[in-house]
Structures are given as structure tokens and as C-alpha cells.
Amino acid sequence: MPANIPNTWDAVKQPSDDAVAGDVWFWKETYRGYQEGLEIALEEFKKFEEIASQLKLESSPFEKDLDRLQRLVSWGEDKLNDTHPDVRIGGASFLTLRYLKAGALLRAQRLIENRMVFLRQNRIVPNSLLKAYDQKIEQALNMAELGMLKGLKPAELFFEVVPDEPRPTEDATQSRLVGLLGGATYESELVVVDPALRERCLNILNTLDEKGLVTQFDTVIREMSVILEDRIRQLTGSSEKLSGAELISAAMGGEKPRIRFSDRKDLQESAHLLFRGYSGFIRNEVMHKLVPSFTRQRVSQLLAMVDYLLDLLSTAKIPTRIDKVKS
């Protein structure tokens, strides 16, 4: 990756499509996932070729997207069939990377749709089988954030009109994902990414749903808060029993934070306050009393928030490993 290219992109300050990202390479098995996604996109585009012809849209953006997809798929086939162990894209433009990201997301979407169909057809399935498939979906979603793709907006290939009536949630392991492909009003389902959060919290949530225990959703928040704090202790090597805001400040605050999100003091402090805000405003309430007023929808939102916080921890720098955290 070129030195002047960040490893994540701001949601607003996106690079130009024409800008050169540099030489990019992937292991063949990794690139095969992007290739599958691009093939899905091409398959969907070809369904509209006749319509574009009827509308007399020659040299339209649709034709350009179709042509670019065909060239990318053909190029990928050649690279995957040669003898090299990796796939290298010399002087890749950011538009090419956006297409790869769109392909990764489309592949994840197809896997999720297949999962939903499978569950409709088989109401009772082995838990181990479902977990293995969820891991496959998780890997597909993670591919969309690898290297220079992290934070990059995907190519806006599709636009789907979402029906006004709400669709029932297919499974407690999934939550809404709106705008999957850039500017589209596309709506799909997204699994919880963090394995511990998915395994422990979703099991509780499933049980509450099955038994109709609508006043006990605070137990899910309590569990996700414990997972978050345990992850912070693991990263810092803390042997002290600090908790809540005290633990977070000891790990992320001060001049030499144990968990560093940025070398800029203002960004580091903002991240520190983000974690403290969750701890003080959400975590503290459920740790000290029963809160029967939480709804299923609110818990799902908070679950997604903690999933995001755990993802931030996974990309943070840990300058030193310590035996205990000091305030």
C-alpha cells in the first residue's frame, strides 16, 4: 500500500474514482471471493440488457457499467487461471476498488438470501451447521473492509425500491442494513460480526423471543457490556478489577493510552469519550438495577453499537502489554 494512502477512508472525504490507488495484490483464494461477487453483479446487469436496448440507452451509464463489469470479470478469470499464487492489479484506480467492494457486498447479500431461503425450507437445522454458514457470511462481509477497501464507498451499481410495509425479521442473528451499495435504497440483513457477541448475546435474545419475555431484554445489554469490558481487559493485559468508566479511562485516556485509536490527541480523546459515553449512559443503568422498559428494537440497535465498538478495538494499536492497568 502506498505510504500516502490511509488504511481507512472518511465517510465524507472519499478519493476520486480516477485517482490511482497504486499496485494492489490479493491471494488467489481471497480474490476469488471478489470475482464471485463481480460475476453476480454481471449476471444481474445482463437481465436488463434487453430493456436498455428497448429504451435506446446506447452509450449510457448502464452500458458503461456493463462493459466495465464484463472486462473485470474476464480479467479476473484470466488471473485466477494462471500459475501465479496471487492476483496483482498494477496501478489500480479507486473506481476498480469500488467495484471490488460492491462485488464483495453482493456476494455477502447472496449468501444471506440463500440462508433465509434455507431457513424457510428447513425450520429445524443443526446449530453447528448454521454457525458455520454464518461464519462464511461474516468472512464475506469482512472482505469488503480489507486493506484500502476499509471505509471506501462501494460502486453504486444497483437501486432497489424498498416496499412501504415492513418485512418480518427472518432471524435474530440478522439486523437491518440500509444503503448496502452506496446511494441505493437497498435493504438487506446483516449478521452480528463479532463472534463472542454473536454467540453469547444472540442466544439470549433468541431465548427471550421464543419465550416472549419482553421485560428481560436488559439482560442482553448486561451481557454485551461484559463482553466489551472483557475485551478491553484482554487487550491491556489488566489484572485489576477495574470496570466501567474507570477501566475505559485507564485503557484509553491520558498521555500514553494503552489502547490507541489515533496519534492525534483530539481523535484519541473522541474515541475515549465514545466508549465512556456507552459505559456511563447505557452500561451503568443495567449493571445496577433491572430495567424492564428496553424494547427488542432498542436492544438490536445497542447490539450493533457494541459490535462497532468491538470492531474499533480490533483495529486499535496496543503500544505495550501491561500486567495491570493503572488509572
What would you say this structure looks like, in words?
The chain has 327 residues and is mainly alpha-helical. It has 2 domains: 172 residues, no CATH class; 121 residues. Helices cover 55% and strands 8% of the residues. The protein is built from 10 helices and 4 strands. Strands 1-2 form a two-stranded antiparallel sheet. A two-stranded antiparallel ribbon has the order 3-4. A hairpin with an 8-residue loop joins strand 3 and strand 4. Helix 1 crosses helix 4, helix 4 runs antiparallel to helix 5 and helix 7 runs parallel beside helix 10. The chain starts with 19 loop residues before the first strand and ends in a 12-residue tail after the last helix. The N terminus and C terminus are likely disordered.
How would you summarize what this structure contains?
The protein is 55% helix and 8% strand.
Give the radius of gyration: 22 Å
Shape: globular
Q: Count the domains.
A: 2
**What is the helical fraction, as a range of percent?**
55-70%
Largest sheet: 2 strands, antiparallel
Low-confidence stretches are 1-7, 160-190, 321-327
Alpha-beta classification: mainly alpha
Please give the number of β-strands: 4
Strand content: 5-15%
Number of helices: 10
Element order: H for helix, E for strand: EHHHEHHEEHHHHH
Mean pLDDT: 80
State the end-to-end CA separation.
37 Å
The spatial strand order of the largest sheet comes to: 1-2
